[in-house]
Amino acid sequence: MGSVQYNASMSRLLYLLAAALLLGGCDGPESQDHAAVSFDPAVVQADVQRIHEAIYGDELDVETILNLTHPPIIEAMGGRDKARTALADSLSGIRDTGLGVESFEFSGDPVFASSQDLEFVVVPTKTVFRAGDRRAESGNFQFGVRQKGQSQWRYIEGSRVNSQTLAQVFPGIPPDLILPKTYRRPIEE
Fold first, then answer.
1. CB 167 within 8 A of CB 118
2. What is the pLDDT of residues 124-142, one digit of tens each?
3. Which of 151, 80, 77 has its CA nearest to residue 121?
4. H-helix segments, the chain
5. N or C: which end of the chain has fewer CB within 10 A?
6. What does 128-158 look like in DSSP terms, one character per residue?
């Protein structure tokens, strides 16, 4: 395959990867005892692992993706029913291309921060994808948010945001919260 074709194919693969990693959050009872709520790396990493498994596991699990997604994202997609349909269609299409995960890992420790009313977490990840004989590495993160005093995090896929957009959506976010650089690059064999 020529280099131009390879690059166009890889660009499409990387675009599909970005689309597949659109979402993430967690449903469940909320704790009102803030003293009992902590910044636990194991909790947020388990959430992010659930998002990843819901997208790339043996069975597509759109409900888990929706339950782990920051609610305004679902609203922007036209509500839960429309979001469910859109995700099922797009992610099924991506899965049908033969895209698979070779490896998934946390590329750094979660970083926690808070504002007056909200708590935030950045969970960095690295995934190696395979499609046929092509491989690509994706460095990314999930951005989690929750109200102070609640135990459940909701997530936004990191390549969709930057410090400026987060500051617009969450005005009290600490300006010194550093977001990891996201990237998608082919792995040459």
1. no
2. 999 999 998 999 999 999 9
3. 151
4. 3-20, 41-56, 62-67, 71-76, 80-96, 163-169
5. C
6. EEEETTEEEEEEEEEEEEEETT----EEEEG
**Contact of 68 with 155, CB cutoff 8 Å:** yes
Q: Which residues contact 135 (CB under 8 A, 6 or more apart)?
A: 102, 128, 129, 186, 187, 189
Tell me if residue 28 falls in helix, strand or coil: coil
Q: 68 with 25: CB under 8 angstroms?
A: yes
CA 160 to chain centre: 9
Q: Which two tokens stand for residue 50?
A: 């659930």
Q: What is the pLDDT of residue 38?
A: 78
The CA distance from 164 to 96, in Å, is 35
**Which residue type, as a one-letter code, is found at position 141?**
F
* HSE-up of residue 53 (Cα within 13 Å, Cβ side): 7
Q: How many residues does the chain have?
A: 189
Least confident range from 11-20, 84-93, 108-117: namely 11-20
